Amino acid sequence: MKFDYDSTCFVPADVLECGQIFRFEKFRQGYRVFSADKDCYIYTDGAKTIVECGDADYFYNFFDLGRDYSKIIERAESFGVPALTSACKKAAGLRLLNQNSEEMIYSFIISQNNNIPRIKLIISRICEGLGQKMSSPLGDFYAFPSSSALAAKEPEYYRSLGAGYRDVFISDTARRIAAEGIERLYGLPGDELRRQLLTYKGVGPKVADCICLFGFGRRDAFPVDTWIEKLYREDFGGTLTDRNKINAYFTSLFGQFSGYMQQYLFYAKRSNL
DNA sequence: CTCCAGGCTTTAG
DNA sequence: CTAAAGCATGGA
Questions:
Q1: What is the dihedral of CA A189, A220, A95, A239, to 10 degrees?
Q2: Which nucleotide is nearest to A223 (CA to C1')?
Q3: CA-CA distances (angstroms) from residue A29 to A13, A37, A38, A60?
Q4: Cα torsion at A210, A67, A1, A54 (round to 10°)?
Q5: Contact of A2 with A51, CB cutoff 8 Å
Q6: Is A206 a catalytic residue?
Q7: Which residue is nearest to nucleotide C7 (CA to C1')?
Q8: Nearest-CA residue to the C1' of C8?
């Protein structure tokens, strides 16, 4: 099945290349996108962006299509920060995805002190090695593995896939989640979710913020990485060096809109838009 | 060769 | 509590 949506605030390249998702590839006229055990094909045709998939409800929510991003951009411009206004103009088709919680936990554990092309490569190897093979009208693909499948492998396996020293973080976290589940994390209030995420091996403040933002819909989170540090110095005239304090600066400035603002800023800076 | 990438854990002070 | 060393890997 397929459905469409106004392409003004839904541009596949902006949504996918902004660093929030690691499983996608150029495909036909647009992109093929993978999430958990599902896939879809998105492309823009004139004023519409079209989504072809087997589960429209899932991808409607996944692409956050119930939210009006023209209002998000209005709010962004209201802050009167030149770098942010400029970022919104250049990345107007960006949206925040609602991604699978467990997939985000492992993906961002792998992301630490790493670069995006290599993160994508390692994750794709893990899916091919441990994920269930799925059939789709768009072609066969591999689902993101379950925690129990991930838990069954030794750290050496992840090392062999190029994960480096993050090998033990992956297997330790997988074994814990395979035993405990993550259901207890849903519905946790305020910063309690963040505090709980910090108890997993390989999850520090920045990774926890990414998991909150992309995997739990916590749009008040503001991950601070090397790009945000750079942008904070160059575009906001900031002098702080402690990442926790930089995070506090931005979250107090942007409040409930922190996560959206972070993505516009991060994407525009990193992609040199 | 060094420096860097969506940083974290461990150890020292 | 804060500060810094150490950590795999591959591209620039």
A1: -150
A2: B6
A3: 11, 23, 20, 20
A4: 30
A5: yes
A6: yes
A7: A165
A8: A164
Q: Which nucleotide is nearest to A243 (CA to C1')?
A: B7
Is residue A143 within 8 A of residue A131, CB to CB? The reply is: yes
Q: Which domains does chain A have, with CATH numbers?
A: 2-66 (3.30.310.260), 101-215 (1.10.340.30), 226-271 (no CATH)
DSSP state at residue A220: T
Could you read off the pLDDT of A253-264 as tens digits, one per residue? 999 999 999 999
Give the number of C-alpha atoms closer than 13 A to the C-alpha of residue A39, restricted to the C-beta side: 19
Q: CB closer than 7 A to strand C: which residues?
A: A 113-115, 117-118, 159, 162, 164-165, 242
Tokens of A50: 């079209």
Q: How many CB atoms lie within 10 A of CB A143?
A: 19
What per-residue confidence (pLDDT) applies to A189? 87
Indicate whether this model's pTM tops 0.85.
yes
pLDDT at A245 over 90: yes
pLDDT tens figures, A120-146: 999 999 999 999 999 999 999 999 999
Check residue A214 and report its DSSP letter: I
